[in-house]
Specification:
heterodimer, A: about 325 residues, alpha/beta, 4-stranded antiparallel β-sheet, globular, B: about 325 residues, 12 strands, about 35% helix
Chain lengths: ~325, ~325
């Protein structure tokens, strides 16, 4: 069956005062219908920029897709006009952000904001729209939906606002939901509620979800597949269990060694990754991670590694694999 | 850690209320009692609005308490005469969540650390420059960076600068309010390792606040759980995570994601209904009763007090 989303060799640049930042440098991602994929990485690795590129929401005029293709349901979104994109956003692809307060309009009731989406994409009269919103609110766990839809964003708590965003994002039953750090601003108990809600909705509606996050623990409970990003590249891709059990890239290995586990009895010393990510105005030659890598070889500083198989459906961009070794 | 075991910091029935207008009172901290032993790390966890930051700020004298006391080696830090108070304050320092907001952008890192030395008259002349260099090295910074401004540093380095400033006055207690929340995962581990190393070397005592419960468990000897201005449970760190006793703690622990898909697949979550109530006019009785599945009549009438529940646990629950 045809993939729902196929990103091929995506390149994105940003114009800044310090020079042109090569934020995304050849990212390829494919996603099945109904699949839960996590894209993990630290600040500045390009994960959010990749997500924004899919929806063609890069800040203008600084951000620019300079190469590659984003095929969604068989059509290349990179070639679409802004008007064509408007018909896709909110209908076929939706996005939720970290801070729902800045993505909701503070001067409009939440009901009216969702009606805007429905009016754009669906032929419904007012009564139908209200019934539909009430149904979406019920689905996303917002109590007293009839009363709530007449309220303004500030009358909702953080967790409830995120539920409103999810209700709005799913109002037109999109095929793909991009969730960029959806629970980072929330408390753990609310985070658990929201992640469970996203998982239930994905299964019920067969909506594919790309979860963008820095939190490996959230990934562990949600995603079927994980891609790790570093310095604008995908450095590792694997089914979730495989990635946690047998990380192949030294960066992934380092990330996992940096976090304590709640379930561990012994206090295992944390092994942080030393140093900092490279400056993407002048990305270094070779592997972008080698200056921070304890196992770097001569080739790592000279040639950029491609994705090399590391196991079933598992690959990583690391020369160690070529040499028959792995991170660890 | 020679005299590990003696109580260094004691918090007795501490209250901090804020007037929020309209005659209403917000009870941010409402009768908290805790102790921290010398050389120990006490973790403080709780959701947004539980009062943990207000508690921290009241402990280091950034707020005056509405009631209760904070004792450092038995001396009341809020009621001491001015000079004595300054001396006590020097023994307690704080590190903040956002190092960028807590470092003066117009001062170099050297000036920021030096200012702390000057205020307390700790080093002068040649000795001063040497001490600044030493403090920067202790915090894992390059001494040549003394002439740089905060904006020239990364987030992790800024947090190190905040740590160097806190260490300048040779404190015994450091209150860490979400010191790693704003940092990337790999940098978090660097800062946590730094804090642990400094504790071993200098015998520091930490009150460590964070919302990342895995990290709090990792760094703390004991953990106190706060809910709506009160402590509902304290226990040795591993005990609290393996055998939580308060219904709120149980729910909180079950909500924490674990970075292990095999564990995640078999875990059951206790999903808490609703959200933390407002600390303005909190409900009578146990503040958790409204979200507690086991709540009985007594829970809605009487405030439960912390009592021993075995295994080093203290629990404030009528049912425990």
């Amino acid at each position: 069956m045809e993939k729902l989303l196929e990103i091929k060799d995506l390149h994105v640049q940003f114009a800044t005062y310090a020079g042109t930042v090569q934020a995304v440098r050849g990212v390829s991602i494919s996603l099945d219908r109904g699949e839960a994929l996590a894209v993990v990485g630290e600040s500045g690795c390009g994960k959010s920029v990749t997500a924004l590129s899919v929806l063609r929401l890069l800040p203008q005029p600084q951000g620019r897709i300079t190469g590659g293709a984003v095929r969604f349901d068989g059509v290349d979104l990179v070639k679409k006009s802004e008007r064509e994109m408007e018909n896709i956003r909110g209908k076929d692809i939706s996005m939720i952000f970290q801070d729902p307060m800045t993505s909701l309009n503070p001067t409009m009731t939440v009901g009216r904001q969702i009606m805007e989406v429905l009016r754009k994409h669906r032929r419904m009269d007012r009564g139908q729209m209200v019934r539909h919103i009430v149904e979406m609110f019920t689905l996303t766990g917002i109590n007293q939906p009839e009363r709530r839809l007449a309220q303004y964003p500030h009358e909702f708590s953080g967790g409830m606002r995120q539920r409103v965003m999810i209700a709005m994002a799913l109002a037109c039953h999109p095929k793909l939901l991009v969730a960029d750090e959806p629970t980072t601003a929330l408390d753990v108990t609310i985070q658990a509620q929201i992640m469970e809600l996203l998982q239930d909705l994905r299964r019920q509606k067969d909506t594919a979800v790309i979860l963008i996050t820095h939190d490996l623990a959230v990934v562990a409970g949600f995603a079927q597949r994980v891609m790790v990003m570093y310095a604008g590249h995908i450095v590792e891709s694997a089914p979730t269990r495989e990635l946690f059990a047998h990380p192949a890239h030294p960066y992934t290995w380092g990330l996992l060694a940096s976090i304590p586990r709640l379930t561990e009895r012994e206090k295992r010393p944390l092994s942080p990754i030393g140093g900092r990510p490279p400056d993407l105005v002048n990305p270094p030659p070779g592997c972008a991670f080698w200056p921070r890598c304890g196992q770097a070889m001569r080739i790592c500083a000279q040639e950029e590694p491609g994705m090399i198989p590391a196991g079933p459906e598992h690959s990583a961009a690391c020369w160690l694999l070529q040499a028959g070794r792995r991170a660890g | 850690m020679s005299d590990h075991g003696t109580t260094l910091l004691e918090i007795n029935d501490l209250k901090k209320y804020f007037r929020v207008g309209g005659g209403q009172i917000l009870k941010a901290v409402d009768g908290v009692s805790l102790y921290v032993r010398r050389g120990e790390t006490l973790g403080l966890v709780g959701e947004t609005g539980s009062g943990k930051s207000t508690l921290a700020r009241t402990v280091v004298r950034l707020y005056r308490p509405t009631g209760g006391q904070v004792l450092l080696s038995g001396s009341d830090v809020h009621r001491a005469p001015a000079r004595e108070g300054r001396r006590l304050a020097r023994r307690m320092q704080m590190i903040f969540q956002d190092p960028y907001a807590s470092l003066n952008p117009r001062m170099t890192i050297g000036e920021i650390v030096g200012e702390a030395l000057d205020i307390h008259g700790l080093a002068r002349g040649k000795e001063r420059a040497g001490r600044i260099a030493e403090l920067l090295v202790m915090a894992g910074l390059n001494p040549e960076h003394a002439g740089r401004f905060p904006h020239e540093f990364s987030g992790g380095q800024r947090q190190r600068a905040g740590i160097a400033r806190a260490l300048a006055v040779e404190p015994e207690v450091i209150v860490c309010d979400e010191p790693i929340s704003a940092l990337d995962v790999s940098i978090q581990a660097q800062v946590v390792n730094l804090l642990c190393g400094l504790q071993d070397r200098l015998g520091l005592t930490y009150l460590f606040i964070a919302h990342d419960l895995s990290m709090v468990k990792y760094i703390s000897d004991r953990v106190a759980v706060m809910y709506l201005g009160r402590v509902v449970e304290t226990a040795p760190s591993h005990e609290l995570y393996t055998h939580p006793a308060h219904p709120y703690t149980i729910a909180l622990m079950s909500a924490v994601p674990v970075a292990d898909p095999v564990v995640e697949a078999t875990r059951s979550r206790i999903v808490l209904e609703g959200e933390i109530p407002s600390p303005i006019n909190p409900p009578p009785g146990c503040t958790f009763a409204g979200r507690c599945r086991q709540a009985r009549d007594i829970c809605r009438r009487e405030v439960p007090v912390l009592k021993d529940a075995g295994g080093g646990h203290q629990v404030a629950c009528h049912l425990a």
